[in-house]
């Protein structure tokens, strides 16, 4: 496979970009224009600064160039929300859904009746069940299928990949391999530039235009810029990072602790207990991430503590819901059937528990959940054992202390 010239292709597309007139301010348009003209890695730093986006209908780009062409693979709630957002931003977007009947329904009604039945989708959004038609000739391909189907999906689109870039929206790990989605992309599409997106991104809130933010992580500055351009809006901010491992692990690991929080909520825990679970969960995530080569400070950002807080606090979270059902006495099979969607945390618990045991990483909450779900141990007994565990430091990864100047 010929290695694609991603930076060149994306720069050409960005030069033709049609900035969303209703939401893009002159400041944002100017930043994109400067980034395209320079075509240097340091231009991404311009977009990584806080930009106060204001609606200004009088400040528009003079021309009407061709928009970015985007495919979103996966018609779940988040994939649909991202497809809708990029379509509203003026991109040419095709949403691929496996089920032919669902595609026909969405083409007719522009409503995803299964996952987002209360929301009308952008009229310009296209739908298909044909993978080749979805991805061929696109600039960006967002993959939002469950982790169990991720590798198979990439294998199917591989013959149609030329210069497209891949962005994973899937928060999870591949069963039995412990592969993150970025690992799967590198395996199946070795010459393709890729990134991962993660953050506190509950799809229904995004569809309701509640202010939200996410992180795009990639080694490619051009890819980060393209994703920011496609998704950044008045209600959805897109920050950039080059810590692929940290951002992706944050999105995968937080699902474990959402299950723990949902389970704990079934026992009417107090605010002190919730705070303890959140902070100890963050400590576990950081320990695991550092062992994998991530920057521990990444877990203090949107893809770490931000996503952890949102997922552990919201009843919209699938992992929280399944944990709550388990806490109320349902079996795992019953809970999964009632949920009707994929809860990535169930698989992640198995993967992370095994990896942590093998590498000696201290992750007591993960081990406790594994004992409850897979070893049939009583939740209250496991919780008591957790409280009686040995002494630990509160914060394990800290910046070096600086000497305070002496005062005379």
Automatic annotation (TrEMBL):
Listed Pfam families: NAD_Gly3P_dh_C, NAD_Gly3P_dh_N
Membrane spanning stretches: none
Residue ranges occupied by any Glycerol-3-phosphate dehydrogenase NAD-dependent C-terminal domain in the UniProt entry: 243-379
GO biological process: carbohydrate metabolic process; glycerol-3-phosphate biosynthetic process; glycerol-3-phosphate catabolic process; glycerophospholipid biosynthetic process
One GO CC term on file: cytosol
Principal cellular location given in the protein's record: cytoplasm
Pathway: Membrane lipid metabolism; glycerophospholipid metabolism
Keywords: Cytoplasm, Lipid biosynthesis, Lipid metabolism, NAD, NADP, Nucleotide-binding, Oxidoreductase, Phospholipid biosynthesis, Phospholipid metabolism
GO terms of molecular function: glycerol-3-phosphate dehydrogenase (NAD+) activity; glycerol-3-phosphate dehydrogenase (NADP+) activity; NAD binding
Chemical reaction(s) catalysed: sn-glycerol 3-phosphate + NAD(+) = dihydroxyacetone phosphate + NADH + H(+); sn-glycerol 3-phosphate + NADP(+) = dihydroxyacetone phosphate + NADPH + H(+)
Superkingdom, taxonomy of origin: Bacteria
Active site feature: 254
Enzyme Commission number: 1.1.1.94
Keyword Metal-binding included in the entry's annotation: no
Assigned protein family: Belongs to the NAD-dependent glycerol-3-phosphate dehydrogenase family.
NCBIfam families in UniProt: PRK00094.1-2, PRK00094.1-4, PRK00094.2-2, PRK00094.2-4
Protein name per UniProt: Glycerol-3-phosphate dehydrogenase [NAD(P)+]
Organism expressing this protein natively: Faucicola osloensis (Moraxella osloensis)
Name of the coding gene: gpsA
């Amino acid at each position: 496979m010929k290695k694609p010239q991603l930076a060149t292709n994306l720069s050409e597309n960005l030069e033709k970009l049609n900035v969303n007139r209703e939401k893009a301010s002159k400041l944002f348009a100017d930043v994109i224009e400067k980034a395209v003209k320079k075509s240097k890695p340091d231009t991404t730093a311009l977009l990584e600064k806080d930009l106060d986006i204001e609606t200004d209908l009088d400040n528009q780009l003079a021309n009407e160039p061709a928009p970015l062409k985007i495919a979103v693979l996966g018609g779940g709630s988040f994939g649909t929300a991202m497809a809708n957002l990029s379509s509203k931003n003026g991109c040419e977007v095709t949403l691929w859904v496996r089920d032919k009947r669902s595609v026909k329904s969405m083409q007719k009604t522009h409503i995803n009746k299964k996952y987002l039945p209360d929301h009308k989708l952008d009229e310009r959004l296209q739908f298909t069940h044909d993978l080749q038609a979805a991805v061929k000739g696109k600039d960006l391909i967002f993959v939002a299928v469950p982790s169990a189907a991720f590798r198979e999906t990439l294998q199917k689109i591989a013959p149609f990949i030329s210069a497209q870039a891949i962005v994973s929206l899937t928060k999870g790990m591949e069963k039995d391999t412990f592969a993150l989605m970025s690992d799967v992309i590198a395996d199946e599409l070795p010459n393709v530039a890729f990134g991962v997106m993660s953050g506190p991104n509950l799809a229904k809130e995004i569809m309701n235009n509640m202010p939200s933010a996410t992180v795009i992580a990639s080694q490619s500055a051009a890819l980060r810029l393209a994703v920011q351009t496609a998704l950044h809006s008045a209600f959805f901010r897109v920050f950039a990072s080059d810590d692929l491992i940290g951002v992706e692990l944050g999105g995968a690991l937080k699902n474990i602790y959402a299950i723990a929080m949902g389970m704990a909520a079934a026992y009417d825990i107090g605010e002190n207990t919730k705070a303890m679970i959140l902070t100890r969960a963050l400590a576990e995530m950081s320990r695991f991430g550092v062992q994998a080569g991530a920057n521990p400070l990444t877990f203090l950002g949107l893809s770490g503590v931000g996503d952890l807080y949102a997922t552990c606090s919201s009843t919209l979270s699938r992992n929280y819901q399944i944990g709550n059902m388990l806490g109320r006495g349902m079996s795992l099979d019953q809970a999964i059937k009632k949920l009707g969607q994929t809860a990535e945390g169930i698989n992640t618990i198995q993967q992370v528990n095994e990896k942590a045991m093998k590498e000696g990483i201290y992750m007591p909450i993960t081990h406790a959940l594994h004992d409850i779900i897979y070893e049939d141990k009583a939740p209250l007994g496991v919780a008591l054992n957790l409280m009686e565990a040995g002494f630990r430091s509160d914060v394990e990864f800290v910046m070096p202390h600086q000497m305070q100047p002496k005062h005379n």
